[in-house]
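Appendix C: a fully annotated inverse folding record. The material below is reproduced so that readers can follow the format used throughout the book. The structure is listed first as tokens, followed by the designed sequence.
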């Protein structure tokens, strides 16, 4: 795995990382890299990038255990999957573990699922979870996993106001536009794609 950071609009390479996973926090110009089992949080500047801090390692957890990481938009929280079976949320500045889905009894529909990816909703209070068979919204601040809500498809995109979410089926060719509140109502389906949809974007 190889990661690179480029400056825009000049497309100049700023820094490269051998064996690194990258996770960006767009509104704070911070990003996290993993290399050789160590997490570092970097701060972008006009003159380049500076090392901000080393991410402390929580007990009984190593970077190698996680395969997908995301920072919240404000850079305060870091979420990751853990061996495809758990979801962890940390405070990005201190490395303090804030939430673990496995700390509470998981619903029956969640058992046996592989967790493929996580993504913060814009406010940072909830996570979109992509799983091997569908997806979920997790209110990671809730005291129990009753706030782990199944989705009728895999999450593929969310609007910045957290009103809409796009879901896809297993083929990747059929999409659903879902209104998150109050009851995950499917507004309409987008069909007719001849191949897997490679991306969606909200205005």
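Designed amino acids, in order:
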């Amino acid at each position: 795995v190889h990661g690179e950071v480029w400056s825009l609009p000049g497309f100049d390479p700023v820094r490269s990382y051998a064996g690194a996973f990258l996770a960006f926090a767009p509104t704070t110009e911070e990003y996290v890299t993993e290399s050789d089992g160590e997490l570092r949080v970097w701060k972008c500047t006009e003159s380049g990038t500076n090392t901000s801090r080393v991410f402390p390692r929580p007990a009984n957890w190593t970077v190698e255990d996680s395969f997908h990481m995301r920072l919240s938009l404000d850079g305060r929280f870091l979420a990751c999957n853990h061996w495809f079976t758990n979801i962890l949320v940390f405070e990005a500045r201190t490395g303090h573990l804030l939430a673990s889905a496995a700390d509470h009894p998981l619903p029956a529909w969640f058992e046996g699922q592989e967790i493929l990816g996580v993504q913060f909703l814009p406010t940072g209070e909830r996570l979109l979870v992509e799983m091997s068979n569908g997806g979920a919204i997790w209110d990671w601040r809730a005291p129990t996993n009753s706030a782990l809500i199944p989705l009728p498809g895999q999450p593929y995109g969310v609007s910045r106001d957290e009103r809409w979410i796009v879901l896809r089926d297993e083929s990747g060719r059929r999409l659903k536009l879902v209104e998150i509140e109050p009851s995950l109502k499917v507004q309409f389906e987008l069909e007719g794609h001849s191949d897997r949809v490679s991306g969606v974007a909200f205005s």
